[in-house]
Every structure is written in structure tokens, then in C-alpha cells.
Design a protein that fits this description.
Chain lengths: ~250, ~250
């Protein structure tokens, strides 16, 4: 932990459909979990509208303050898919048709009605200087530009692109989470939680209350890059809860 | 529309549990839908960690650039609930125990085991100068500080606080959405969509593809503050789709 470099990423979710409430975002949780497995901490997310200026400004603010920046959304074939244009604006370059992306799309659409139309060819556009992120299960690839990884908005297509990137990004140690649940109102165990966190430097303990089947409860999540420390702290918290009269539930409720 | 003032809000989601991927956020969609009903457009969302400095900085950036700022998360009784402290830091004021909040909590905990403990009293803390947002269904209220509305993170408690605010915020006309679906690959109708949008100034058309039961499809969402225009454009899009050989599905697929 101490002395070890820590790696961070930010995520920009691009989409009027998320900001209007029409579509429930699923990419934040998916990208967050994947990043954690790569030893990279998701430090910030911004959700912005389909607006080239706003996207470009946000990308430039975040790509400089984090090791990695991911974006989801806006890379399809229709007029509202403007992420590549925004990225070109952010980097001050033109957009070009990437020759490998054109070849992938030519192969993909060869036997499909209509073939590679102009609209479909839009999906081969990248900011000049970009590389492709392979999409193992469908045609259009993602795009990597500097430290920015441009993913699709449809969650299962974004998942395919993350799969292609697994193990390829430099990161540190994944954060280990240990969860202990109890049928306790969190206000009743607030002191106990604080004391447990204070006596174990290097861990953070989050308290997540719920009310289910007419009873209060909470899950306490102990997080640390030191897995052994996280587990030891979990055991200590379980003992303290038991002493206070609450039956701990390892793994959470 | 033209000449009419437009009202915007931003939302800050506070929570390590969202950024770690452990918890699926549900507040963005809920706050977005509610704001739209109030005639206020959600223009940006930021998700930030449980860090006083980061929260304060984000709040100060966004409360000045939008009519309203909402936050969710971090207002419970445990050590990781730091939103009120961050808000006080953002506004450069102290935190105090709000007398009305203390009274609400005294009533709420009077007949409950333990009564109003110090930990529970933490939920009566507000930045100096703040007002309360009533929480009709449980004890702890939300907090209003200037144009900032501080809501709970647990989605159904946040919903209660929004309910208490319904109709109380000044806003414009709600955006009307009309959805038309079709069993079409969006790349096949990209030109048709762009033409429909171009010939109807004042509408934005979003295209949201899916792949279900082995078939491609997409929903096209026409949005405008002018409900009549949105409906007329929906009819026009349906006609164009039918002419192109796709059966339109009013209301979406």
C-alpha cells in the first residue's frame, strides 16, 4: 500500500437518454467493477448530454487528471452519434476513416442486405492517430486515443470491448472488499464502526443501510488494497457486533 | 420554446459504493424523471467519492452554473456520512444542529430503543443557514442550502424527499417525449432519421438500438418542449418508416 503507485480512471457517460431518465445506466457499475479487477480505481464519473462542446471540454478536463479515461455511448451510425467528433475536437485533430475499421465493417456487412452503406461507414470514423479496440462479438470496434478508451453505450457491447482490454492496462493491486451484515439500525452501531475503522489504518468502512421485510439492517463494507488486512478487520468487526448483541452475517445480508 | 427561459439542474451522486461497482445507482434516473416533470432539464451528473474536499469542489463548480443542484447520499448517522460537512465547507460556514430537525428526531426516536443517541443526532446537523426538506415517511429530513438540495442516498427515501418538493421549484415546460420503434437496424434508417430531425426545428431525435430475440430493432425518441410538434414529428417519422418498408410501433418496442 504505502509507497505503491495508485492508478485512477474517470468515466464519461455520454447520453441524453440517461439525463432524461428514459434509460437506466448500467455502464457505471460494469466499468467500475472491471476497473477494480485491473487494479485501477474509478475516481469520478460525469454524465453529459449529446453536445460536442460539452463532451470535448469534459474529456479534456478528465484525461489530464487521471491515468485513464473511459467513455460510453454515441459511437453508432446515426446523426446523434457524435462522440468521435467530440474526441477529435478535444484532441484538436481531424476525423478519418480508419483503414482497419473499414476492413472489419466490409467483412461484417459483406453478406448483409445493403452492404457497407455510408451510414454504416460512419462507424469506421476515428480521430486521427487513434487505434482500435477489438469488438470480438460484433462489427464496429471501440477506439483508443491516447489514454482515452471510447466504448459503445449498449451495455453488452461495452462489455465485449472491456473483455478485449482485460489484462492489457497497467494497474496496481485490486481493492479487496469484505462485507459483514447485521440486523442493526446503523445509528446503533455508528460508534463501533468508527472505532473499528480508526484502529485499522489502511481500511475504509462503508455502511449501507436498508429496510426489508419490516426490519432494519445494514451491510458494512471493508475495503483495502491489503486483502489480509481487510479480512482481519472483517473478523474484528464481526466480534464487536457479536459483543454488542448483533449476529454478524459474513458476506452480507 | 424560443425566447422562453430554460431551467437546468445538476446532480452530484456521492458514494464510494457506486464508484466501486458494488451498488447500482438508481437515483440518476429517478431525479432526472422528476426534474423533467418540474420543467427542469438535468444538464449534468457527477459521481464523486466520499471525500469532503472533492464533494465541496464539485458542489461549488455546479451550484454556480445551474439553477438548481441536487445531491444524493452521505446524510446518515455513520462516520462515512460527510455530505453536510462537505456542504458547509463549500459554503464557508459552520455546521449546526437544526432545532426543527432535532425536534423531528426527538419525536421519531422517543418510543424507540436507545432514544435520540449522539449518532442519531448527527442527522440533525446542517450547514448554518440551511432549511429542511420534509421527509414525510421517515425521521431524518433532507437539507436545502441556497439552490442546493441535499437528498438521501437510499432511493426510496430520496423519492420521499422529491415528493415533498413536487411543484415547489420554479421551472419551464416539461419536455415531451414521443417514441416510435421499428424492427430496423439503425444504420438502415440513419438518413431518414436525420432528414426528419432537420425538417422539424425544435425537436431532437435520439436513436436507441437493441438486439432482442435474434432480431435488430431500435427505438427513436423525439423530444421537444412543444408537445404538438413532438407528436407531429412522430407521425411524420412513422410515415417515413412505413414508406421505407418498416412497420412503425407507436410508443416503442
Amino acid at each position: 500500500m504505502s509507497g505503491q503507485r495508485s492508478w485512477t480512471a474517470a468515466l464519461v457517460v455520454i447520453g441524453d437518454e440517461i439525463l432524461s431518465g428514459r434509460t437506466q445506466d448500467l455502464n457505471v457499475a460494469q466499468v467500475a467493477s472491471w476497473l477494480n479487477e485491473q487494479g485501477i480505481r474509478l475516481a469520478e464519473v460525469r454524465i453529459v448530454p449529446d453536445d460536442i462542446g460539452r463532451i470535448a471540454e469534459t474529456v479534456n478536463a478528465l484525461r489530464r487528471s487521471h491515468d485513464y479515461l473511459f467513455t460510453t455511448g454515441g459511437i453508432g451510425p446515426t446523426h446523434d452519434d457524435i462522440t468521435v467528433d467530440a474526441m477529435a475536437a478535444a484532441f484538436g485533430v481531424s476525423t478519418i476513416i480508419h483503414p482497419d475499421a473499414r476492413r472489419i465493417l466490409e467483412d461484417y456487412y459483406r453478406d448483409r442486405p445493403g452492404g457497407l452503406t455510408d451510414a454504416r461507414l460512419r462507424m469506421a470514423r476515428v480521430p486521427e492517430g487513434a487505434e482500435l479496440i477489438p469488438n470480438p462479438h460484433s462489427g464496429a470496434p471501440g477506439v483508443k486515443m491516447g489514454n482515452v478508451y471510447i466504448l459503445a453505450g449498449v451495455p453488452n457491447i461495452a462489455a465485449n470491448m472491456l473483455e478485449a482490454l482485460t489484462g492489457k492496462l497497467e494497474g496496481g493491486r485490486p481493492v479487496v472488499s469484505v462485507t459483514v451484515g447485521a440486523r442493526a439500525a446503523e445509528s446503533d452501531v455508528a460508534d463501533l464502526l468508527r472505532e473499528t475503522e480508526d484502529s485499522n489504518p489502511g481500511v475504509a468502512i462503508g455502511s449501507y443501510p436498508f429496510f426489508r421485510e419490516g426490519r432494519y439492517g445494514a451491510n458494512f463494507v471493508i475495503r483495502s488494497e491489503d486483502g489480509e488486512l481487510a479480512r482481519r478487520t472483517g473478523d474484528e468487526l464481526s466480534s464487536r457486533l457479536r459483543e454488542a448483541g448483533y449476529e454478524p452475517v459474513e458476506g452480507g445480508i
